[in-house]
Specification:
There is one protein chain. The protein is an alpha/beta fold and 345 residues long. Helix content is 41%, strand content 19%. It binds 5'-O-[(R)-(carboxyoxy)(hydroxy)phosphoryl]adenosine and zinc ion (ZN). 5'-O-[(R)-(carboxyoxy)(hydroxy)phosphoryl]adenosine binds next to helix 5 and helix 6.
Length: 345
């Protein structure tokens, strides 16, 4: 079985083709993938402009599909199922991927399969050379979500804790904006932080000692704003780098501490990190150190698969299919779900 997957929930158009091995054995294999990031287009506005995102997905989706087929040396006739991100995400952007996927499936006489975007992130480490084994604790850290989850198998997700306000990616992005960095701020702030001393500023670690695997990042953003105001109109490059380093250190410390708490609560010895913030080098370094101390194995997706992509959607569909959990549609109908809790999958 070959699954063609589409991702269009935000500012990346992703298409990928994954093959499910025969006999139900082994991890599905990535045959081809193509991605177009809209970051350059949205940068002028300091954030994603939903209408521009939708229109750009329309422009990109078919050329990317042709690219994936060319890469894998296959044609549309070789596709057995078409998967797409059903949500959560921007409504107009989701409609493009869902509409194209379901129309393509109908034209080919093949079934289509809706996928939860966060399930894609969660299962993206299965695209790496060293895929995890179930069960594991997952730290899901993206631009819109920050959750700790117990994952017993594909489709068996229990939320252990999540953010009560901003997501970790949002904390990175909003703080970066306050520091005058371009969108999306996370990677820019991480780069600036390399030059800084995290001890130069004292920033809060909200809910650090709550004793529960929950998060809150809104207060941190306010604290960064207060510091930026104190620095005045023309902060030095060193001051900006120090504040970036302090912000990153605060976010990372909370993420690491809560991940360890979730591992302790569940008694599990495996951690999977997924979502855009999972690309952060300091987070990886500190998680590696904390996990090594506790004899916990930690898995990350490949760096380029941390942020949104089509491969994770095709992979999630393939894993569902392999386990017989998939409920594909064949009637050409579809619905998007801009707001959708992963616990409800
Ligand atoms: O998972 P993702 O691509 O999109 C969502 O589904 O939200 O995550 C994007 C988020 C953004 O907030 C971005 O700033 C953050 O991931 N991010 C990073 C890094 N790379 C991406 N944050 C910190 N350090 C990074 N290296
Ligand atoms: Zn995402």
């Amino acid at each position: 079985m070959r699954v063609l997957g589409f991702e269009s929930s935000c500012d990346e158009t992703g298409v990928a083709l994954v093959e499910v091995p025969g006999g139900g054995q082994g991890v599905p294999k990535l045959l081809g993938e193509a991605l177009h990031s809209q970051i350059a287009m949205h940068q002028a506005y300091g954030g994603v402009v939903p209408e521009l995102a939708s229109r750009d997905h329309i422009r990109r989706v078919l050329p990317l599909t042709r690219e994936v087929l060319a890469q894998s040396g296959l044609t549309l006739e070789d596709v057995d199922m078409v998967a797409y991100t059903q949500g959560p995400g921007l409504a107009g952007a989701l409609l493009v991927g869902a509409g194209v996927a379901v129309a393509l499936a109908a034209a080919l006489g093949k079934p289509s399969l809706p996928i939860h975007h966060l399930e894609g992130h969660l299962l993206s480490p299965f695209l790496s050379a060293d895929p995890p084994e179930f069960p594991f604790v997952a730290l899901l850290v993206s631009g819109g979500h920050t959750q700790l989850m117990r994952v017993d198998d594909v489709g068996q997700y229990e939320i252990l804790g999540e953010t009560i306000d901003d997501a970790a990616g949002e904390a990175f992005d909003k703080s970066a904006k306050l520091l005058g960095l371009p969108y999306p701020g996370g990677p820019h702030l991480a780069k600036l932080a390399q030059q800084g001393d995290a001890r130069a500023f004292e920033l809060p670690r909200p809910l650090l000692h709550s004793g529960k695997p929950d998060f809150s990042f809104a207060g941190l953003k306010t604290a960064v704003l207060t510091q930026v105001k104190k620095l005045g109109a023309a902060p030095s490059e060193q001051q900006r780098a120090d504040l970036a380093a302090a912000t990153q250190a605060a976010i990372v410390e909370v993420l690491v501490k809560k991940s360890m708490l979730a591992l302790k609560e569940t008694g599990l010895k495996r951690l999977v990190v997924a979502g855009g913030v999972g690309a952060n080098a300091l987070l990886r370094e500190q998680l590696n150190a904390a996990c090594a101390k506790r004899a916990v194995r930690v898995h990350y997706p490949e760096l380029q698969l941390c942020t949104d992509n089509g491969a994770m959607i095709a992979m999630a569909a393939a894993l569902r299919l392999q386990r017989g959990f998939a409920r594909p549609h064949t009637d050409g109908s579809f619905a998007i779900r801009p707001r959708w809790d992963l616990g409800a999958v």
